């Protein structure tokens, strides 16, 4: 496509995003979430990714019936639709204290302890994971995958960056070095670490080999920091519950073995979270080779 065609496409995509933002922002939170959930549940089962979600569910839950796996997949699309709509109402969600951090006393103690690495899956509404830092007054730093359209990326980044006072960086080798430096200087690196990572380390996830991101474990070991796994679950009424657990991070004379073990601990924690509410995880992405 010629350069002018690319620029035109980018402007049209950006205009469409702004139009969607105006529509969803103008709707009440509950209405926007319900409408988006209905739309995703209606359309997504006809798309190729639905077949991938069912295949992943078939491997993960061989004991479940096809009917139950279909129910989970369709419910997943509804949850993703709600997550999409909730992005445009995030300030309201945060302001109205719709997020419960359980147990509260554990989170309070966490804010008074040493710095740590946070890992979370795409479960419930993952945009809310930043509240671990915001509620405790900690400068959480994060990474994200930049959108191909620079206009869209700039608009999205402006809204996400406010939730990461320690900085939000495009996923890249430079960002990896930045996050390691932040950790060594006493910061709080945070990662969504449940996606397939080319060049990662092999882990067992729902009984199958899955290449996973070793960088959170590498940072934790290099900076002598603990790793916490966080999950956010959506509750009725556009409310959320956040839970967190500390993971074992071995430190022996074998750095590579320690990183592999800690990375496996992260993925095992994610699997446990997902098994409790499988309909709230993204089964449609290509997690396994």
Account of the 3D structure:
By secondary structure, this protein is an alpha/beta fold. It has one domain (3-280). It is built from 11 helices and 9 strands. Helix 3 (48-60) crosses helix 4 (66-87). The model has no long low-confidence stretch (mean pLDDT 93).
Search tags:
alpha/beta, two-stranded antiparallel ribbon, 289 residues, globular, seven-stranded mixed sheet
Q: Helical element count?
A: 11
Roughly what is the average pLDDT, rounded to an integer? 93
Number of strands: 9
Order of helices and strands: HHHHHEHEHEHEHEEEHEEH
| Helix/strand structural class | alpha/beta
- State the end-to-end CA separation: 31 Å
Helix content: 40-55%
Tally of discrete structural domains: 1
Q: Largest sheet, if any?
A: 7 strands, mixed
Low-confidence stretches: none
Radius of gyration, Cα only, in angstroms?
Answer: 19 Å
**Spatial order of strands in the largest sheet:** 1-9-8-2-5-3-4
Percent in strands: 15-25%
What overall geometry do the principal axes of the alpha carbons give? globular
Would you summarize the structure shown here?
This protein has 289 residues and is α/β, with parallel strands linked by helices. The protein has helices at residues 3-26, 29-43, 48-60, 66-87, 90-95, 104-111, 131-136, 150-160, 173-184, 215-222, 255-276, and strands spanning 99-101, 117-120, 140-144, 168-170, 188-192, 201-205, 208-212, 227-235, 239-247.
């Amino acid at each position: 496509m010629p350069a002018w065609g690319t620029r035109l496409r980018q402007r049209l995509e950006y205009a469409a995003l702004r139009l969607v933002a105006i529509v969803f922002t103008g709707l009440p939170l509950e209405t926007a979430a319900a409408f988006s959930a209905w739309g995703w549940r209606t359309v997504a089962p006809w798309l190729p990714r639905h077949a991938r979600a069912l295949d992943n569910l078939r491997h993960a839950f061989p004991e479940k019936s096809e009917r139950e796996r279909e129910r989970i997949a369709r419910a997943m699309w509804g949850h993703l639709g709600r997550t999409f709509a909730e992005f445009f109402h995030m300030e309201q969600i945060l302001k109205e204290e719709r997020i419960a951090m359980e147990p509260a006393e554990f989170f309070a103690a966490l804010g008074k302890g040493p710095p740590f690495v946070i890992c979370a899956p795409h479960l419930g509404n993952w945009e809310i994971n930043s509240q671990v830092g915001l509620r405790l007054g900690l400068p959480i730093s994060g990474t994200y995958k930049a959108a191909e359209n620079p206009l869209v990326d700039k608009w999205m980044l402006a809204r996400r960056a406010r939730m990461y006072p320690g900085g939000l960086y495009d996923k890249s080798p430079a960002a990896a070095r930045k996050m390691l430096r932040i950790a060594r200087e006493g910061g709080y690196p945070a990662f969504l670490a449940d996606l397939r990572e080319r060049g990662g380390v092999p882990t067992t996830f729902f009984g199958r080999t899955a290449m996973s991101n070793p960088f959170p474990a590498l940072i934790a070991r290099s900076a002598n920091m603990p790793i916490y796994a966080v999950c956010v679950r959506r509750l009725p009424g556009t409310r959320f519950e956040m839970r967190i657990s500390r993971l074992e991070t071995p430190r022996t004379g074998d750095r590579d073995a320690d990183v592999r073990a800690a990375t496996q601990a992260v993925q095992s924690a994610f699997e446990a979270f997902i098994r409790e509410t499988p309909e709230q995880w993204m089964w449609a992405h290509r997690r396994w080779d």
